[in-house]
Amino acid sequence: VFSEPASNMPARALSLKYAGKFLNGAMSGRPEQRQKLYLSAGLDRKWMLRLGTTVSYMYSYPKTRWESVSLYAKYRFLSKDDVHRHFRAAAFFEASHSRNDLMYDEISLEGDQSGVSAGLVMTQLLHKLAVSGTLALTEVLNKKRWEAGHTAMHPYQTVQYSLSAGYLLFPRKYSSYSQTNLNLYLELLGARNLDRKGGFVDLAPALQLIVNSNTKINAGYRFQLSGDVYRMAERSFLFSVETTFLNALKKRSP
User: Fold this and answer.
1) Which residues make beta-bridge pairs with 22?
2) Do residues 4 and 76 touch, judged by C-beta distance below 8 A?
3) DSSP conformation letters of the chain
4) What percent of the chain has a predicted confidence (pLDDT) above 70?
5) Closest CA to 5 of 109, 130, 115
6) If you placed Cys at 236, which of 23, 24, 121, 133 could pair as Cys (CB 3.0 to 4.6 Å)?
7) Per residue in 158-180, pLDDT tens?
8) How far apart are CA 221 and CA 217, in angstroms?
9) Residue 30, CA atoms < 13 Å, CB-side half-sphere
10) By the 8 A CB rule, do 136 and 161 touch?
11) Peptide bond preceding 155 in cis form (omega within 30 of 0)
12) 4 bridge partner residues
C-alpha cells in the first residue's frame, strides 16, 4: 500500500490510480492534503512505466495548485515461480519535477521535491503471505544546491528502505476470480540522510480490498516510531483506488 512490490502489473495492461494523502502540517498546524493521479502501463512481463502528477495546497495555502510530475520505471530481472509461492526481484528508477521550495529535511519525490531515485525491490510470496524489501538511493535536484554562496540548510541525499508484509485474510478458499479479497498490510518505512545527520523510521498498517480481481481500494495510517529530522508531519493517512484494464495495449506483431 505504501511501497512497490517486485511484481509488475500484467503485460499490455493499463491502470489508473487515485491516491490522497491527509495530514496535519507541522509548520502550519492545520489539516493539509495532497491529491495524486497515476497512469501505469505494463509494457511486457518484465517492464512497467508509470506517469504521475499531484495537486495540493501544502506549499501554497490557501490556494490549491498543480505541484509536480513524475516518471517511474521498473524492470523485473528475476522470477522464480512455484505452486502458491514465488520470488521476484526488480530494479527501479524514478524522476520527479516539483515546483515547491525546500522547506523540510525529509526527502520525498511524491510531490515535495525535484529529484531522482534508483534502487532494488525483492518480494517473496508464501501461500497467503507476501514479504517485500526495498532499498533505494534518492537525490534532490534543486537549483539552490548549486547556487554560488548557498549554504546547504537541507539534506540532498538519502538512503530509503522499507520492509512490507501483506497477508490474505479473505476469502479462506477461492471459488471464482470475482470474489473480493481482503488483505492486511504492515510496513516499516525509513530513511537515513547521507550528507547531513538525521533520519526516521515509520510504521504503517493498512487494509486492502481487491474487487473483481482488477480494482484495489487501500486505506492506511502511517506514524513515526523514531526520528530526528524536521518533517511536514509525523503522522498521515492514505486512501487510494486503482483500476486495471487488461489487454488495453495492442500486442506487438511477430
Assistant:
1) 33, 237
2) no
3) --S--SSPPPTT-EEEEEEEEEEE-TTT-SEEEEEEEEEEEE-SSSEEEEEEEEEESTTTTT--EEEEEEEEEEEEEEEEEETTEEEEEEEEEEEEEE-PPP--SS--TTTT--EEEEEEEEEEEETTEEEEEEEEEEEE--GGGGSTT----S--EEEEEEEEEEEEEE-SS-S-TTSPEEEEEEEEEEEEESSSS-EEEEEEEEEEEEETTTEEEEEEEEEEEEE-S--S-SEEEEEEEEEEETT-SPPPP-
4) 96
5) 130
6) 23
7) 999 999 999 999 998 888 888 99
8) 14
9) 9
10) yes
11) no
12) none
Say how many CA atoms lie within 13 Å of 55 toward its Cβ. Answer: 7
Spatial CA neighbour of 48 closest among 108, 121, 113: 121
Backbone angles phi, psi at 171, to 5 degrees: -80, 155
Is the pLDDT at 152 greater than 80, yes or no?
no
Distance CA 113, CA 101 (A): 7
CA distances 81 to 7, 44, 46, 86, 87, Å, are 11, 17, 14, 4, 7
Place of cell 502458491: 84
Euclidean distance between CA atoms 158 and 136, whole angstroms: 8
pTM of the model: 0.94
Do 10 and 219 meet the contact criterion of CB atoms below 8 Å apart? no
Beta bridge partners of 208: 183, 218
Q: Give residue 157's identity as a one-letter amino acid code.
A: Q
**How many residues in total does the chain contain?**
254
Residue 84 binned pLDDT confidence (cut-offs 50, 70, 90): confident
